[in-house]
Specification:
The protein is an alpha+beta fold. The chain is built from three helices and four strands.
């Protein structure tokens, strides 16, 4: 099976949408509030699309498929404990169920 194809991931196929922007995060009001709570530069929004209708009763399968998807792992940015942005691929050993 080729990378990025559905399979053991519950049949979901995810794709990274790097050109999607979230203008609401860059408004003056939002940046002011993020700065007030020391979150400016510590929060990012990223978009991913998927190929199936979301079914709430399969939410656990959806989430596990998302974090294991070969298109998500190299693109999803996480803020490390040291304050550096890293990809999920570098932090995959640290994922845990809450």
């Amino acid at each position: 099976m080729a990378a990025g194809e559905p399979g053991d991931l519950g049949g979901y196929y995810f794709r990274f949408l790097p050109q999607k922007t979230f203008q609401s995060l860059s408004t003056q009001e939002t940046t002011s509030r993020l700065r007030q709570w020391s979150m400016l530069g510590r929060i990012r929004a990223q978009a991913f699309g998927f190929d199936q209708v979301f079914q709430p009763y399969r939410k656990d399968d959806f989430v596990m498929a998302f974090f294991k998807d070969p298109n998500v792992i190299p693109n999803l940015k996480l803020l490390s404990d040291s304050g550096q942005w890293i990809t999920l691929g570098f932090a995959s050993g640290r994922l845990r169920k809450i």
